[in-house]
Design brief:
It contains seven helices and eight strands, in the order αββααβαβαβαβαββ. The chain is of the alpha/beta class. Strand 4, helix 5 and strand 5 form a beta-alpha-beta unit. The radius of gyration is 19 Å and the shape is globular. The model has no long low-confidence stretch (mean pLDDT 82).
């Protein structure tokens, strides 16, 4: 059997090292960047394969030889040496999947894949049609990521008032409970929603009644009182 070629996926992934001043071979991974914006993941992985690029990508992310898994292994080893902990730290990830041409069920699978072993800090999903199944998985994903999520880009994703209310309330609830459990300061999260069919004034009132703290500000805050969700382009919703 011909060995799977993951070079196309590897070329769109980058491990960013911490700036510690150490030699390159001693550098620690800071985050994984997945740069697939505008890349059609529903197409075949190559001319001889029946597997889609999505199938290949999910396999590659779990492959022990991938840059993602190698960086994860380094983090785990350092954590074990420094804290004598057997727990497995998650690699921070910035994931760009704007306009990747997936159907609803395929997009749901992509989100499942991203939720396995990566700590999502910034997630770009704009210019994709999020149907019922992918919205359901996205709710599960942001509930799991919660307090770690710094940016969520959902521009032109076909969401309506009910969809956005569920997503924002789920994210706010997860972030608040996780921050309490970790007993640490919470950072504001930027959520971009322009281009969706939303009645902004009505939705803001609905969020207020649900006691979900949001702001139309466009800069993150780190003060203890700034655990709100920031919606900088909210007034540009259709």
């Amino acid at each position: 059997m011909r060995k799977a070629d993951f070079s196309w996926a590897a070329s769109r992934a980058r491990v960013v090292a911490q700036d510690t001043g150490k030699p390159e071979w001693q550098e620690l991974p800071e985050r994984l960047e997945l740069r697939f914006g505008g890349f059609h993941l529903g197409a075949p992985a190559d001319s001889d394969s029946q597997r889609s690029r999505l199938d290949s990508l999910c396999t590659w992310l779990e492959d022990s030889s991938s840059s993602a898994q190698k960086a994860q292994a380094v983090l785990a080893e350092v954590s074990k040496l420094e804290s004598h902990s057997s727990g497995k730290p998650q690699l921070p990830c910035w994931a760009d999947f704007r306009d990747v041409g997936l159907e609803d069920s395929e997009f749901a699978r992509l989100l499942h894949c991203l939720g396995s072993g990566l700590r999502l800090e910034r997630l770009w999903l704009s210019v994709n049609k999020l149907g019922p199944r992918s919205q359901e998985v996205l709710l599960e994903l942001i509930a799991a990521v919660g307090v770690d999520l710094e940016e969520l880009h959902l521009v032109e994703t076909g969401l309506n008032d009910d969809n956005v209310f569920e997503l924002l309330s789920g994210l706010a609830t997860a972030r608040a409970s996780q921050a309490r459990a970790k007993q640490e300061m919470e950072m504001s999260c930027l959520v971009f929603l322009a281009g969706n069919h939303i009645d902004a004034p009505a939705l803001l009132e609905r969020l207020k009644r649900a006691e979900i703290s949001v702001s139309l500000d466009d800069c993150q805050k780190t003060e203890a009182a700034s655990s709100e969700l920031l919606l900088p382009d909210f007034c540009h919703c259709a």
